[in-house]
Amino acid sequence: MSIKILTILTLLASTLSAFSQEKMVNVNGVNYHVLTRSLEQRKPGQPVLVFENGMGMGLGNWNTITDSLAKNTPVFLYDRQGVEKSEKVFQLPTPQKIAATLKSLLTELKIEPPYILVGHSMGGVYVRAFAGYYPNDVAGLVFVDPADFTETKADWNQIFRDIGVSEKRIDEMLQKRLYTASKVDSSRYAAWSEGQVLTDLRKTDFAELTSLSVPQVPVLFFVGGKLEVPMERRSKEYDHKQFFEVKNSSNMLRWRRFIHSSSKGGAVIYLSNSGHFVHRDDAAMVIGNIRMMLKALR
């Protein structure tokens, strides 16, 4: 190999290293696993893409879209408490606590706003919380098949009424979903505790989040339209496919209302060939729409 090629490869490696940093960051006595990309290239006032992972998921789950996005935009990813390399904390990760932790991490790393928040599944709940507690820090919101933070118990029950489930069975299912105690799983505490927080929020019709204002920023929702539940795990009591379709329609109606609460507008993007992990099933669509949001914010 020639000296010239070796020099180019060395420069390329050092450039990539400079623009990508993985580290442990301590806030409030807890160590968090953090990854940043392209922060050194950030222009004044340029938004940073800040990612919230799905329930119990590590930051690597975003690798289908972050490599491409980081070519032109600074990116921040981290693992919540107890996930992957982040330190385990035996406290419930409530929306307010997670929002405050994320704010502390960004402050510790001197990553100033504005931020475009991107949340998948349970991460969508946490993104909604951060946007409500720190609205002035937010430039845009991207929800990737989120847990439905606009849902009420009445909404959930109506889905089953629409597909012909009896009132008695609806009451029994709601009791099991929300009011049957779950044994603490200390070995998988991060995922268990986030699931417990989601259940507690559903009991109150997400009162903590609905009490928060919606920042006046553009909003995107990506919705996976492919039912991924295997046949052997589908309900024997009702048509599971019909349930999935009615639930998605119900969710999207409320998400459109959420978008209309912002004067900046947005879109609900329904992807019929994508499952819950939309950013993995159709990375190009997610990347393309986030780039359009970034371009509109320039």
UniProtKB/TrEMBL annotation:
Domain of life, per lineage: Bacteria
Pfam name, any one: Abhydrolase_1
Transmembrane domains' residue ranges: none
InterPro entries: AB_hydrolase_1 (IPR000073), AB_hydrolase_fold (IPR029058), AB_hydrolase_sf (IPR050266)
Signal sequence coordinates: 1-20
Domain AB hydrolase-1: 47-163
Coiled coil: none
GO-annotated cellular components: membrane
Key words of the record: Signal
Designated name of the protein: Pimeloyl-ACP methyl ester carboxylesterase
Species annotation: Dyadobacter psychrophilus
